[in-house]
């Protein structure tokens, strides 16, 4: 079975915790992705910022995306996966935490991102259905 480093998108780019949400939105657009890891000035992962976070937590609440810092949207400790963890472990972690994207860590270093679509391609068909069902329930 493939491991995270086999199916991830390598060299994920971070948005700085002190960067504005507007900068994050531009970076999401430029990279054509739906999520960015949030990294602090200490180069440690602080969380993940998604396009949905920007829509719901900033725009939907009337906050100014130019004045709101990306780090303000980080929620506790980021859920991650190890670079050598199996596709099954990624599946389990996504389902347990109800997330569709995971930062991939090698030691303490961010090495990539793995998305639901990556896992879907790596898992047998019945497990993909189970994962989608788990992510879709409240």
TrEMBL record:
InterPro entries: CBS_dom, CBS_dom_sf, Diverse_CBS-Domain. Pfam families: CBS. Keywords: CBS domain. It comes from the Bacteria. The keyword Transit peptide does not apply. Residues 8-65, 73-131 form the CBS domain. PANTHER family: CBS DOMAIN-CONTAINING PROTEIN, CBS DOMAIN-CONTAINING PROTEIN CBSX3, MITOCHONDRIAL. This is CBS domain-containing protein. The lineage of its organism: Bacteria, Bacillati, Actinomycetota, Actinomycetes, Kitasatosporales.
């Amino acid at each position: 079975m493939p491991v995270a480093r086999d199916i991830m998108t390598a060299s994920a780019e971070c948005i700085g915790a002190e960067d504005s949400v507007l900068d994050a939105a531009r970076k999401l657009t430029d990279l054509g992705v739906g999520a960015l890891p949030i990294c602090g000035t200490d180069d440690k992962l602080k969380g993940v910022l998604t396009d949905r976070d920007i829509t719901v937590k900033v725009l939907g609440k009337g906050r100014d995306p130019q004045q709101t810092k990306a780090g303000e949207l980080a929620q506790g400790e980021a859920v991650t996966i190890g670079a050598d963890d199996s596709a099954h472990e990624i599946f389990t972690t996504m389902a347990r935490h109800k997330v569709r994207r995971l930062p991939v860590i090698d030691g303490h270093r961010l090495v990539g991102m793995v998305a639901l679509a990556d896992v879907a391609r790596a898992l047998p068909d019945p497990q993909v259905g189970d994962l989608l069902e788990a992510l879709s329930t409240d």
